[in-house]
Amino acid sequence: MISRYDREADKVEHYSINACLAPVVSLHGLAVTTVEGIGSTRTGLHAVQERIALAHGSQCGFCTPGMVMSMYTLLRNKPRPSMADLDEYFAGNLCRCTGYRPIIEGFRSFTTDAGAGGSCGRSDCCRRKGKG
């Protein structure tokens, strides 16, 4: 995720980018946040990382950082997104292992379409524990 301050709007804007397509020189003056920068097993996982893991949304792990950072960026820009927002933010992410269902189910709990109990339906759901 890259972030920049918009002086006219007086706010920080966040963007998901394809890291492999962004020349490092194009990032001058921007803040860069990677999946390692939002949480780890040592410092504690971010809720986005936790939910993709709990939903079994990662198999080979190749797409996982991009999926996590797309969801993280969406949440930074819109704390209560809809499923339509989620679809828009994930338009450029590809996964060949999970078939997307577990990824989307893991992240559905962040959306306004999730319902009161979270998408997993478990009594110990992370949403009920206040981790969302």
UniProtKB/TrEMBL annotation:
Pfam (any one): Fer2_2
Domain [2Fe-2S]-binding: 34-107
Name this protein carries in UniProt: Putative xanthine dehydrogenase
Domain of life from the UniProt record: Eukaryota
Cited InterPro entries: 2Fe-2S-bd, 2Fe-2S-bd_dom_sf, Ald_Oxase/xanthine_DH-like, Beta-grasp_dom_sf
GO MF annotations, alphabetized: iron ion binding; oxidoreductase activity
